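Researcher: I'd like a candidate sequence for this fold, 229 residues long. If you have to choose between options at a position, lean toward the conservative one.
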């Protein structure tokens, strides 16, 4: 046992240490990070340019750094690059999306989507070199077949997805948060066990030579914040 290790309540702990910033430095760093992240956009115009597999591995490791309920890490990341499987995913997704755009969605929902310009056709599911499908693990199953609880599964996967999107942006790549509803076809196509449910489908790649995004504005700090001082 070293001075950086300790046992607390019978469990091993390590001393937490990292750089600390103060004064103008912390203000500048927080501002610079905001400005960098504010440049992130949801994109639909993908290039088919290959991405090194190591990049995908690194961004997944970044996503896995997210906090989770009781540190259960209740997620599985399925990574698809096989062209035939991507095609099957696109066909199944478009079947669900067609039904949504032609009857499932309310009139107000359709109106809200107009500035974004979406429709039921999803060619990016084949064009993007990688698809990452996040599955939320409702519970765990140990080697003896026993069911083990997971906690705050939805929240944990949502945080991990945020980490993943930030890591994608950091790598200079683009992504689209795609949620065809229902998404059960993904569990079938990827042959996932019953304790896993699809959470989010992310095509990942470089932007196309011409990549257009809506000229949208995010809420201001005043619009989204209430201070209790």
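Model: Candidate sequence:
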């Amino acid at each position: 046992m070293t001075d950086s290790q300790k046992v607390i309540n019978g469990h091993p702990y390590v001393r937490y240490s990292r750089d600390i910033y103060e004064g103008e430095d912390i203000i500048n760093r927080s501002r610079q990070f905001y400005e960098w992240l504010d440049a992130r956009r949801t994109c639909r115009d993908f290039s088919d340019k290959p991405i090194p597999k190591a990049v995908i591995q690194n961004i997944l490791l970044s996503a896995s750094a997210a906090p989770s309920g009781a540190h259960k890490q209740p997620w599985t990341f399925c990574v698809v690059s096989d062209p035939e499987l991507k095609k099957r995913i696109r066909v199944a997704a478009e079947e669900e999306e067609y039904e949504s755009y032609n009857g499932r969605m309310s009139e107000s929902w359709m109106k809200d989507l107009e500035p974004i310009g979406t429709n039921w056709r999803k060619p990016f599911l084949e064009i993007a070199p990688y698809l990452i499908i996040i599955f939320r693990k409702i519970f765990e199953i140990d080697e003896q077949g026993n069911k083990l609880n997971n906690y705050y599964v939805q929240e944990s996967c949502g945080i991990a997805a945020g980490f993943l999107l930030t890591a994608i942006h950091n790598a200079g790549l683009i992504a689209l948060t795609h949620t065809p509803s229902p998404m059960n076809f993904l569990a079938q196509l990827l042959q996932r066990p019953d304790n896993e449910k699809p959470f989010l489908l992310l095509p990942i790649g470089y932007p196309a030579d011409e990549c257009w995004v809506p000229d949208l504005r995010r809420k201001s700090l005043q619009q989204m914040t209430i201070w209790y001082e």
